[in-house]
Design brief:
InterPro entries: NAD(P)-bd_dom_sf, NmrA-like, NmrA-like_oxidored
Shape: globular
Number of helices: 15
Keywords: NADP
Radius of gyration: 22 Å
Strand content: 15-25%
CATH class of the largest domain: Alpha Beta
Protein name: NmrA-like domain-containing protein
CATH architecture of the largest domain: 3-Layer(aba) Sandwich
Order of helices and strands: EHEHEHEHEHHEEEHEEEEHHEEHEHHHHH
Number of domains: 2
Distance between the termini: 54 Å
Number of strands: 15
Pfam families: NmrA (PF05368)
CATH superfamily of the largest domain: NAD(P)-binding Rossmann-like Domain
Mean pLDDT: 91
Oligomer: single chain
Strand order of the largest sheet: 3-2-1-4-5-6-13
Largest sheet: 7 strands, parallel
GO cellular component, one term: nucleus
């Protein structure tokens, strides 16, 4: 009989990717969806997957938790800051254990305030990550086979809409021509003996990271599900106990390299600017605190940040014994992810094939130019 997998917050990018992958290979799915109101397309898609039961409501409801984990063999738990994350994460783990779940994968993130170098370097945790870290530590105490996955930065965060941190601002060609350097030369065409602009716009990404610092990335919708499914297939005998933390990142790129990948994929100038996070639209107060803390922790010299690494070195040493560790730090993290899922998509592929589609769905038409 196929295994039953319980999945929390199934309309989120991580969980939806896992649900699609699991359904495709015959798993039975017990999916939690907060509401069909907020993500109606994804919610409808998940509910229509074969062999899927949907439980709708707040994840902090004991009734929802009990129904979700009933008869589940394995479980993926990803809590959000809107879930009363600390209490809900602990409760889900307790209910999963009581229900007899044989392997839990929890989507965690580090608290840099707990890093060995934290005191010396002035590192601190991020508000949205601290509770995940605390839930992880709690799960380690309750004697349930558990693995903790840490995702890199989502490719899918990028948008030309004016959202903070990952906005690729659409730049009119007249402004591109004012950029320092020869940005416009490769996109200028000859027409009737005169040079004319070859594109109506370029893009600019402003963020607090130093331009050359390497960051871990993944296409969440394309690659998260298959990788996590492989962890479940391998089972807790391989990925629990002493090997309990796994990085999920398939590309290792600096902000400048990200922009180069977008530029090549979109055939237009794309540049990176190290600078403060710009807030141009209303955002929740809690997210404002997250962004301020992120800029201070990860930011480069131009924003007077602490230049902390996205994941501190050694956080995944528990997984290092599983493969020959030829690399250090992020190089090892990415190599481990690629070993688990070889069909990963790189940043250039995402920028070429997926980003324009998402932009059109957001009402943009820059891709329609001749």
């Amino acid at each position: 009989m196929p295994e039953r997998i319980a999945i929390t917050n199934a309309t989120g990018r991580q969980a939806a990717s896992l649900a699609r992958s699991a359904a495709a290979v015959g798993y039975h799915i017990s999916a939690h969806i907060y509401s069909f109101k907020y993500s109606p397309l994804v919610a409808s898609e998940i509910s229509a997957l074969p062999n899927t039961i949907v439980h709708t409501g707040a994840l902090d409801s004991p009734q929802i938790q009990e129904a979700l984990f009933k008869d589940a063999d394995i479980a993926f738990i990803n809590t959000t800051s809107f879930d009363k994350e600390l209490e809900t994460g602990k409760a889900c783990a307790d209910v999963a254990k009581k229900a007899g779940v044989k392997h839990v994968i929890y989507s965690s993130m580090p608290d840099h305030g707990d890093a060995p170098e934290a005191k010396q370097k002035g590192w601190h945790g991020l508000p949205h990550y601290r509770h995940k870290w605390e839930v992880e530590k709690y799960i380690q105490t309750i004697a349930i086979p558990a693995t903790f996955v840490y995702t890199g930065i989502y490719y899918n965060n990028f948008t030309s809409l004016p959202f903070p941190l990952f906005c690729l601002r659409e730049v009119p060609w007249e402004e591109v021509e004012t950029w320092e350097g020869n940005w416009q030369d490769d996109w200028t065409e000859e027409k009737d003996g005169q040079k004319v602009k070859g594109r109506k716009c370029g893009f600019e990404w402003q963020a607090p990271w130093a331009p050359d610092v390497r960051l871990p990335w993944l296409d969440t919708e394309h690659d998260f599900g298959p990788a996590v499914l492989q962890i479940f297939v391998d089972g807790p005998q391989r990925w629990a106990g002493k090997r309990f933390r796994i990085p999920l990142a398939f590309d290792l790129l600096s902000p400048s390299a990200v922009c180069a990948a977008f530029s090549k994929a979109l055939n237009r100038p794309v540049r990176y600017v190290e600078g403060p996070i710009e807030i141009k639209v209303p955002i929740p107060e809690g997210y404002q605190e997250q962004l301020e803390a992120l800029q201070d922790l990860f930011g480069g010299d131009k924003v007077k940040g602490k230049n902390a690494p996205y994941w501190w070195d050694g956080i995944f040493d528990s997984a290092a014994s599983d493969i020959d560790r030829e690399d250090q730090g992020l190089d090892f993290d990415v190599r481990l992810s690629r070993k688990m899922w070889e069909g990963w998509r790189d940043m250039e592929g995402y920028a070429r094939d997926i980003f324009p589609v998402e932009e059109r769905l957001n009402g943009k038409n820059w891709m329609d130019e001749a």
